[in-house]
Write a structure and sequence with these properties.
Layout: E1 4-9, H1 15-33, E2 39-44, E3 58-63, H2 82-89, E4 97-104, H3 114-123, E5 127-132, H4 137-152
Parallel strand pairs: 1-2, 1-3, 3-4, 4-5
Helix pairs in contact: 1-4
Length: 155
């Protein structure tokens, strides 16, 4: 859709939902100041979501929840966010993804945003940005600008 940023996300503890809500509010303010600034349309994927064929470009937002291993040399097991990965892998949905934005807790060092990095590698698109936990206003501005630039320039 023209002049819109489409986001598909999964939220486990509410952090991603909160950030997407803040990002949507920020986009509305930017659009009120200048209607050439895109609005955000979002869709949450849950374990109850019926998979569908995506037909428009989107950005994926995924937090990191892991069980076991250190995420690098002794294994990693994704927890609670698998449904988003399965949704992206469904039919041709991966072809419409413009990039993934990851979130996590920096206290986990190498595991920070590991799910987003793995999605980028597994599905063939870029990890374009990240934020910690619920993010902050500077994260909203930076990530919105990044996505808006990619949408405007068909990146």
């Amino acid at each position: 859709m023209e002049n819109q940023i489409y986001i598909i996300y999964i939220s486990v503890a509410g952090n991603t939902q909160s950030f997407v809500d803040d990002l949507t509010d920020y986009a509305e303010k930017m659009h009120q100041n200048d209607t050439s600034n895109p609005l955000i349309i979002s869709k949450e994927v849950t374990d109850q979501t019926d998979f569908a064929d995506e037909t428009q470009p989107y950005f994926a937002f995924v937090p990191t929840y892991l069980d076991g291993g250190n995420g690098t040399d002794n294994g990693v097991k994704e927890l609670m966010t698998n449904t988003l990965g399965e949704y992206i892998a469904y039919h041709d949905n991966r072809k419409f993804c413009l990039g993934v934005i990851g979130s996590g807790n920096r206290n986990f060092n190498e595991q920070y945003c590991l799910t987003a990095r793995r999605y980028a590698q597994d599905y063939g698109f870029e990890m374009i940005d990240d934020y910690e936990l619920r993010g902050n206003s500077s994260d909203c501005k930076r990530i919105y600008d990044n996505m808006a630039n990619r949408v405007k320039n068909n990146i």
